[in-house]
Amino acid sequence: MKHLFQGTATAMITPFYPNGGVNFEAFGAMIEYQIAGGTDALVILGTTGEPATMTEAEKEEVMRFSVEKIAGRAKIIFGSGSNSTAHAIEASIKAEKMGADGLLVVTPYYNKCTQNGIYEYYKAIAERVHIPIICYNVPPRTGVNIQPATMERIASLPNIAGVKEACGNMEQICETMRRIRGKCDLYSGDDNLNLPILAIGGEGLISVASNIIPRETKALYEAVRAGDLARANELQDKMLPVIDAMFIEVNPIPAKAAADMIGLNGGIPRPPLTELEPAHKDAVRAALRAFGLNVRN
Predict the structure, then answer these.
(1) Residue 122 catalytic?
(2) What is the pTM of this model?
């Protein structure tokens, strides 16, 4: 299976009120900002959305709101991975029923299963849903790494649409691309590697920075697709300081602060995540201003 989406997807932040509830007015404004910026797909309740600290009722409310608000104007991809295969299956079935176009399923974290365990995890989920699945490989977060040979094996499952690669190892990503090319798609999951991953045949990217700069993120994708590497390099060079600022502390802390700075009301992170430290706020603010964004606070 291929082509759940082509182009750019934003790993959406979830704006919370200071008392902890979801700010749906702000979330709706963020969705409109993304669609106006040309974003092709919205990844909701992925790592950047902080689902680990949300209740099941809150997640359902976010999914329901998203489907109604987006109304077919962009692909909707809900995060549904877990360190429990049974829970991941349950979450994936629920996301499909709620109207997802596809799923982003992170590897089972903390348990540190074997490569065969990773395969069996995705196989079990794929057998229970009918919509496309993007595997999510992010070893710094999970403690496990989908090796290229394992991803090749997973790609043989009927509704595996691709893999979001955030391992940070370009040599590994190239080998994974070689093994899955023509079988399923590869998406960049590291903003600072968007250009090289697209250049080796990546179908698109799933970006944190595009919460803030969706138009430029889409322009980078389009430049690579058009074969205009000079333009793509120009865009990447301009975007890198903003990308670096988005990871000055653990994601999504800087992205939420940056959203506040440009008037999108990103809200505060949920504990144990904390608000961006003052010195880092100055650095993020400076990067946004240097990029040419209208920083309001």
Answers:
(1) no
(2) 0.96
